């Protein structure tokens, strides 16, 4: 989105070629001094969380020698410095996503595949506010990547419709690999900039060391669609049997015993005014709690939804006169709050058991142990190396990546005699495999 001035292209080229070799796998080979950044509006670091995921998976096997995912989000002139063997710069973005997806799929890593799809949908930098980017004219190896297009500058022609369609197409691909289709919204871009703004600034941000990405931390993300529209778009989409490294997906239904063993109802509230609260089922996965078809990361939010659904049903019945003597106002008072707190309290012991547990089980320690992945409660319950994550797989992947960077740096500096960066990469692959 927006323009990039020639001095910055030179800075990219000069600093990239001047970097010492070899370079740690997960470290960029350059650093742009802020004083040189006269283009005021780069945004290639706005979604850092997805760049990090793609970076890890790209480097598992990188035959085209793409230097870093960040180059795929730059304009062609700047992108050339890190394109490796990719000569069609309009397709560097797609090629990066495609290779990362291929590697993640081979490893059976759904989170890695999801990161690659989300990265493929990110907006590229262009020359000015309102200028759409050029689409790749080559066919991706993976049909999932081929189905996803990059967001366009929100001030460009028909951007609202185009970007909405991009998000809905992305949601379908996420659903097809078993990822959360609602995360398609996270690929969105900024509010439209002013077409008369000759600085090219728009409504962007670019903070290289913002772990999650400044579009999230600064609350600048604009949703291109609603949650309901995404739900409707993915209705009926089945998870592809090839999404986990070609492993077969059983078509037989689980037995009642198997269901009882892996699913339990966490809703213990017994009030039945207007009908019982819908069950809160707990199973495995990154969003393990389900109420009325909606999934949640943490138990508290799921229980709250269950109580809210019950309240809606009760209120509707009271208003319709099918619950004689029932006052709707009574349902929203202290008694209702007490009922919810009571229901939540019954399951508190289960939440406490989950809290503050290290879920990183990989024991390899070449160059140092992988940092712990601490699980607690909240909307982003997994934390590692100062960053928080919605799902465990992404947090474990970050932990493995941090270990790999430390190992690669130690190997490059000679502090690990007899150890090469390739050994560190092999350890990271084992770490991701354990996750």
UniProtKB/TrEMBL annotation:
<keyword id="KW-0732">Signal</keyword>
<feature type="signal peptide">
    <location>
        <begin position="1"/>
        <end position="18"/>
    </location>
</feature>
<dbReference type="InterPro" id="IPR053216">
    <property type="entry name" value="Appressorial_penetr-assoc"/>
</dbReference>
<protein>
    <recommendedName>
        <fullName>Cell wall protein</fullName>
    </recommendedName>
</protein>
């Amino acid at each position: 989105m927006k323009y990039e001035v020639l001095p910055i292209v030179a800075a990219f080229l000069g600093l990239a070629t001047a970097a010492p070799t070899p370079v740690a796998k997960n470290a960029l080979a350059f650093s742009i001094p802020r004083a040189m950044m006269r283009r005021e509006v780069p945004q290639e670091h706005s979604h850092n969380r997805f760049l990090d995921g793609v970076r890890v998976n790209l480097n598992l096997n990188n035959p085209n020698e793409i230097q870093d995912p960040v180059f795929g989000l730059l304009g062609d002139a700047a992108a050339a410095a890190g394109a490796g063997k990719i000569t069609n710069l309009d397709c560097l973005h797609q090629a990066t996503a495609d290779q990362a997806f291929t590697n993640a799929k081979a490893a059976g890593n759904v989170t890695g595949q999801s990161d690659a799809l989300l990265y493929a949908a990110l907006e590229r930098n262009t020359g000015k506010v309102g200028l759409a980017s050029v689409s790749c004219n080559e066919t991706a190896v993976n049909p999932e990547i081929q189905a996803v297009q990059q967001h366009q500058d929100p001030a460009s022609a028909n951007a609202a419709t185009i970007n909405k369609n991009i998000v809905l197409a992305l949601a379908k691909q996420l659903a097809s690999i078993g990822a959360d289709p609602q995360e398609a919204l996270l690929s969105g871009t900024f509010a439209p900039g002013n077409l008369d703004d000759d600085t090219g600034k728009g409504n962007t941000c670019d903070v290289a060391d913002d772990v999650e990405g400044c579009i999230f931390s600064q609350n600048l993300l604009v949703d291109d669609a609603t949650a309901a529209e995404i739900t409707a778009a993915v209705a009926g989409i089945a998870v592809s049997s090839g999404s986990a490294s070609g492993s077969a997906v059983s078509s037989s239904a689980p037995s009642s015993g198997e269901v009882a063993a892996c699913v339990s109802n966490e809703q213990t509230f017994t009030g039945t005014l207007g009908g019982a609260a819908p069950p809160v089922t707990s199973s495995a996965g990154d969003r393990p709690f389900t109420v009325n078809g909606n999934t949640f990361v943490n138990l508290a939010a799921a229980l709250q939804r269950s109580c809210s659904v019950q309240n809606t049903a009760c209120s509707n019945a009271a208003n319709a006169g099918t619950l004689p003597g029932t006052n709707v106002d009574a349902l929203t008072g202290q008694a209702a709050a007490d009922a919810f707190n009571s229901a939540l309290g019954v399951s508190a012991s289960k939440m406490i058991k989950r809290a503050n547990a290290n879920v990183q089980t990989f024991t390899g320690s070449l160059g140092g142990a992988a940092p712990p992945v601490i699980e607690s409660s909240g909307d982003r319950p997994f934390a590692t190396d100062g960053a928080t994550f919605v799902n465990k797989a992404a947090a474990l992947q970050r932990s493995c990546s941090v270990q790999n960077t430390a190992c690669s740096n130690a190997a490059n500096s000679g502090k690990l005699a007899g150890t090469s960066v390739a050994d560190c990469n092999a350890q990271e692959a084992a770490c991701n495999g354990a996750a």
